[in-house]
Amino acid sequence: MLLRSARTLIGAITIAVFWAFGAGWLAQPVLDLAQPSAPPGGQTVAPATYASHTAIVMLGTGTIHRDGKLVPPKDAIARIVKSADLYTRCKHVSAVCHVIVSGGNPQDHEATEADTYLPYLLREGVPRGDIILENSSLTTYQNARNVAAILPAGYYGSLMLVTSAYQMPRALLDFHRFGMDPLPIVSNTREAKRGLLPRPQNFSDAEIALHELIGIAQFHVYRQIGWF
Known about the structure:
Blueprint: H1 2-5, H2 7-22, H3 27-34, E1 53-59, E2 64-66, E3 69-71, H4 74-93, E4 96-102, H5 113-123, E5 131-134, H6 140-150, E6 158-163, H7 168-177, E7 183-186, H8 200-225
Parallel strand pairs: 1-4, 1-6, 4-5, 6-7
Antiparallel strand pairs: 2-3
Helix pairs in contact: 3-8, 6-7, 7-8
């Protein structure tokens, strides 16, 4: 009886929350929680940060179909451009610079993330001999685990981690779990557009942010029970 009498109230609250996410008024606070330390502008790296042997790890973020071709999504393009820029700067001061692309095929498309991103890195000027593909990981946790497995002990004096702002907090947790302490390099941030009408992109941004926040909570729970 109580539930029946509250149907109108529950329905109104549901519609209001749905509208607030779509119109950006709730989507932005959730994004802010997911990407709390994102730099307001472009992030630069001092030349002294690069060691004689430097590894730049770029995390995957899926693939999409466009015009009948499998291509990187917008966030992946930002990561590719940032990684290539870091590589170019690295080559000015370091003897060895490698870009490690970590991303398997969680979407079950016709190619892995790493293999799909490869041609774009080549176009940005990163030579094939300096690109290492890790194309079997399906989660951020597996990204960290698999990258740790291919890093020779003591070989790289500098390790950088490139990903979007919303994924960085969870990625750092996972990389620290496997004994790595990379320098976080944010490739891009997401920002909701506030207004009166709901926007599909705001729903997408909110979903991504909630996924990351839940992933962080999951990490801590799994660590407590010994699964991570």
